[in-house]
Amino acid sequence: MAVVGGGIVGLSVAWHLQRYDVEVVVLEQGRIGEGASWGNAGWLTPALARPLPDPHVLRFGLRALLDPASPVYLPPTADPATWRFLLGFARHCTTPAARRAMAALAPLNRQAIAAFDELADVHAVPRTRDAQPFLACFGSTQEAMALVRELQDLEEHGQRPHFDYLTGPQVHAAEPALGAGVAAAVALRGQRYLHPPLFVASLRAAVEEAGGVVREGSTVTGVRRDVAGLRVVTATGEDLRVDAVVLCGGAGSGDLLREHGVRRPVQAGRGYSFSVTGAEVPSGPVYFPVERIACTPLHDPWVTERDEQWRPLPVTPRLRIAGMMEFRPHGAPLDPRRIEAIVAAVRPLLPGVDLDDRQDEWVGSRPCTTDGLPLIGPTRTPGVHVATGHGMWGVVHGPLTGRLLAEQVVTGRASPLLRPFRPTR
Predict the structure, then answer these.
(1) Which GO molecular function terms does the record list (predicted)?
(2) What is the CATH number of the domain that holds 263?
(3) How many domains does the chain have?
């Protein structure tokens, strides 16, 4: 069986297929995990995992979309396909649509962290780190109360996030690295985080140790069905015969998906990140919702050699700073102005961080759909399946997606959790 795409979703699918004794080859057009799985914030925050289309997002986006310093940016030269995507996205930015989408995601959110523990229990990956707590920080109490209301609304979908509301000195007692302009915060309990590159590396190692084949530099140009079964064709002319295929190629999957009856577009929502250090680096994950900026400490990474215990190595603490939602074609070069916009926004919020000594500047494409829901399940071509379109939540939902889809591919039994995510909807 072939899995096209070697990010956290593709590797999770591959690993869970192997639990059913399926022989797997993972085909990645670049290097494993170098896409959205490499440079993201590494948050496991089910309490914040919401569909992107929302009435508030639409109002904010219309004002900010063409501002190069905005956390949401659309270049004036955007192609027609991007404008069509945004029109479809706007149609889903209604309160009824947002509620339906949240009802679909909530069951995944409730099981997401357990899926990471399942991998760690068998030493496939290191254990994720508890965020004690996870802080969402604001410049005013009014801004903070908007998040409090969102968290309270989750109860109607069966999610009951635990949180504390902090103001004034409570905020800086919880995280001394915050600037004086942070006046209020929501301290979320029960959330986690991970080191994205090392997590992906460990999952790749687990797939290979179980007998899977991982091929980098393998660009899949087509998946065909003929009388003999399925053929996977690569740009180098390789022609693989397989029993089934799972397409997990993220924002670059569009052409392959359309070949198999998946008409819902997958648009690149590009995010930027870099890492820094300084005199005062936050000890845990910090989120600035108004600025749309995520900060994650990457200290104490785990060794990549797998053994019975994952041992932390002492290294200089670094902070990954990530942000932006930029609608540009997948594969477009990094725009330095986006990095500069993040730096300008963060400078007064984290004054003890050295933002002029940046490393690992990166841009990657989140695969976004018009309704904010992933595409998980079979296509119109027998034997061809899809797992992509997770938007900002590919890390959160990746291992659970892998388990649920692998079960469906092998047994034919579809979990009720996957019904809202049919690729042909």
Answers:
(1) oxidoreductase activity
(2) 3.50.50.60
(3) 1
